[in-house]
Specification:
With 310 residues, the chain is an all-alpha fold. It has a domain of 113 residues: Serine Threonine Protein Phosphatase 5, Tetratricopeptide repeat (Alpha Horseshoe), CATH 1.25.40.10. 70% of the residues lie in helices and 0% in strands. The protein is built from 17 helices and no strands. It starts with 28 loop residues before the first helix and ends in a 5-residue tail after the last helix. The N terminus is likely disordered.
C-alpha cells in the first residue's frame, strides 16, 4: 500500500496594501508579478538590474522572481532572491514564509522552521504559515508538533480543506485511523473535487480491510482525476484483496500505461499475476521491479514464493 502523500502547498505572494504608482512601471512590472515563470524571471531580472530603483520595488521584484524560481523547483535560486528581499525589507511575513517553503523544497527543514518561526513572530494569526510549519514538522517525523500546528491552522481557517487532509495523513501515520477518516471526510465536504482526500481515505479503508469503501473512494478519486496513478494502483490492491482479480489486473495495466516501468506498479501487477497463476509473467514483472528499485516492498518475497529469487 502506498504511503500517504503529504502535500506542500505553494503560497502565492499577496500584498496587504495597494502598490503605489504602478502606472509609471511600463513593460516589466506586470509580467514580473503576473507572467509565467519564464516570463516573470526575465522581466524581474531586468527590474532588479535597473538603476536607480526604489527599495520597495527592488524587494518586490526579488520576491516575485523567487516565486517564479520556486515554481520551477529551482529552490536554491529562490532562496537567493528571498535573501535579498529580506535584506531590503525584513518585516514581510510572506517573504519569510516563501523562503521557508524554498528551504523545505531543498530538504532543509531546520532552516524552513526558522523562517516559519520568524513569519509567525510577525503575524501570529497566519493560518498558512502554521500549515507550512506543520508540514515541515511532519517531514521531520515530529508528528505531535505537526498536529498542534494543524489544529491552529484549522482554528484560524476552518474552511481550509488541505489542513484537514494533511492532518488526516498524520493521524493515519500515527495509527489513529478513525480520526484520519473523519478529517478526510471533512476535507471532502469542504472540497468535493479533492482527488487526494478520496485517495487518502480509501487508503485508510483498505488498511482496515474495508475494501468496498476503499474501492468506492479510489473510484471517486479517479473520476476527479483520471491521471491519479496512486489511486489507480491502490484500487488494484483493493480489488485484489477483495477477490476481484480481473478488475485488479485492469487497474495495474492502466497504472503502467500512465507510468511505464514504474517499479511500484510492476510490483503490483506481479502480485496480481501470481494470484492468477501466470507465473512467468509474474516473475518478469517482479524482477523488473527489483531491478529498477531494490527497496520495493514485497517483490523479493513474491519471487521467493515463486521459487524464482536470484
Amino acid at each position: 500500500m502506498k504511503s500517504l502523500r503529504l502535500l506542500l502547498p505553494v503560497v502565492l505572494l499577496s500584498f496587504a496594501a495597494p502598490l503605489p504608482a504602478l502606472a509609471q512601471f511600463e513593460g516589466d512590472w506586470a509580467p514580473c508579478h503576473e507572467g509565467s515563470a519564464e516570463v516573470a524571471i526575465e522581466a524581474c531580472t531586468r527590474l532588479v538590474q535597473r538603476k536607480p530603483i526604489e527599495a520597495w520595488k527592488l524587494a518586490k521584484a526579488h520576491v516575485s522572481r523567487g516565486l517564479a524560481y520556486a515554481g520551477r523547483n529551482e529552490f536554491a535560486k529562490a532562496v537567493e532572491d528571498y535573501n535579498r528581499a529580506i535584506e531590503i525589507d525584513g518585516d514581510d511575513v510572506w517573504t519569510y514564509n516563501n523562503r521557508g517553503l524554498a528551504h523545505a523544497g531543498l530538504g532543509d527543514y531546520d532552516r524552513a522552521l526558522a523562517d516559519y518561526a520568524k513569519a509567525l513572530s510577525l503575524d501570529r494569526a497566519n493560518a498558512w504559515v502554521y500549515q507550512n510549519r506543520a508540514l515541515a514538522y511532519a517531514a521531520q517525523g515530529a508528528h505531535d508538533r505537526a498536529l498542534q500546528d494543524f489544529a491552529k491552522t484549522i482554528a484560524l481557517a476552518p474552511e481550509n480543506a488541505s489542513a484537514y487532509n494533511n492532518r488526516g495523513e498524520i493521524y493515519a501515520k500515527k495509527g489513529d485511523t478513525e480520526r484520519a477518516v473523519q478529517d478526510f471526510t471533512t476535507a471532502i465536504a469542504l472540497e468535493p473535487d479533492d482527488t487526494w482526500a478520496y485517495t487518502n481515505r480509501g487508503t485508510v479503508h483498505a488498511g482496515k480491510r474495508r475494501y468496498d469503501q476503499a474501492i468506492a473512494d479510489f473510484t471517486k478519486a479517479i473520476d476527479v482525476d483520471p491521471t491519479n496513478i496512486w489511486a489507480i494502483n491502490n484500487r488494484a490492491w483493493a480489488h485484489l484483496n477483495a477477490g476481484k482479480t480481473s478488475q485488479a489486473l485492469a487497474d495495474a495495466n492502466q497504472a503502467l500505461e500512465l507510468s511505464p516501468d514504474n517499479p511500484v506498479f510492476l510490483n503490483t501487477r506481479g502480485h496480481i499475476l501470481e494470484v492468477l497463476g501466470r507465473r512467468r509473467q509474474a516473475i518478469a514483472d517482479l524482477r523488473q521491479a527489483i531491478a529498477k528499485d531494490p527497496t520495493v516492498q514485497g517483490s523479493k518475497a513474491a519471487l521467493k514464493r515463486l521459487k524464482a529469487l536470484r
